[in-house]
């Protein structure tokens, strides 16, 4: 394909150097920058209630305030559990990206820095799980196996497109939570830290993805478009572990059925994917042939 050179301010090397400098100025340690000893606030939510999977359903109407708050605790724990696992996957994908890179290159240095951020994020989500006392929510066994086998075929295109699937979706939920005074201060602090550090990861992934697209043949790009769409269609529906409904005293099969057909929740998922879908379409990582995968992921109409 025709390769249009990027303006100098946006070349991957210049972006990586800028992100390395920002990392020095704005990085957090979840062990010391979060007050884990502070008690949880009575009556506060664990995420934005209007974004919960059952909001507005007949089941929701039958729940009292306490049970709704409990649902928010388990839904946030599930997002954190699945988010932590996806970040562990990203660490593995970055390690593979690094294996063939020049150690002198600032892109190498930034990718190593980002791995460091992610190890602290996974620790933060793990400490949150302990604090919330929820079951260890995470991916189903088939998804773990699919990643182990499928990721062998990943290249930079898939690595950075899939990094964006996790990062851009969680970013939308977490920016809103960080601003919402109805939510527990602990959760808002976690979201605030994660949003600040993830903004760098999104810049890096977007730049690397644009660069990879410009250097990949159209046949290879078509393969990775499908692989990205397929992976997203498997990952995204697992963000909410269905066992959480039982933990809040609901019939899991009925709750899952109502969540799946809930128009509010469908809109929430579309809203969470807006920026991601626009970017992947603009860069040529989604074409009409992959719309089915992205609809299955709940991110397209
Ligand atoms: Fe992260
Ligand atoms: Fe990240």
Write the layout of secondary structure elements.
Layout: H1 12-25, H2 30-33, H3 58-61, H4 65-99, H5 106-132, H6 141-150, H7 156-179, H8 185-214, H9 218-235, H10 243-247, H11 252-260, H12 263-282, H13 291-296
Helix pairs in contact: 1-5, 1-8, 4-5, 4-7, 5-8, 7-8, 7-9, 7-12
Number of helices: 13
Q: Can you give the helix content as a percent range? A: 55-70%
- Note poorly predicted spans: none
Kindly identify the CATH topology.
Ribonucleotide Reductase, subunit A
Bound ions, cofactors and other small molecules, one mention each: fe (ii) ion
Count of strand segments: 0
Assembly type of the shown chains?
single chain
Helix/strand class: mainly alpha
Order of helices and strands: HHHHHHHHHHHHH
Q: What count of structural domains?
A: 1
Rg is 19 Å
The CATH homologous superfamily: Ribonucleotide Reductase, subunit A
Strand content: under 5%
Distance between the termini: 30 Å
Largest sheet: none
Give the rounded overall mean pLDDT.
96
Based on the coordinates given, report the CATH architecture: Orthogonal Bundle
Net shape: globular
The first-level CATH class is given as Mainly Alpha
Task: Tell me what you see in this structure.
With 301 residues, the protein is an all-alpha fold. The protein has a single domain, classed as Ribonucleotide Reductase, subunit A. The protein starts with 11 loop residues before the first helix and ends in a 5-residue tail after the last helix. The relative contact order is 0.15. The model has no long low-confidence stretch (mean pLDDT 96). The protein binds fe (ii) ion (2 copies). The site of one fe (ii) ion has 4 residues, from helix 8.
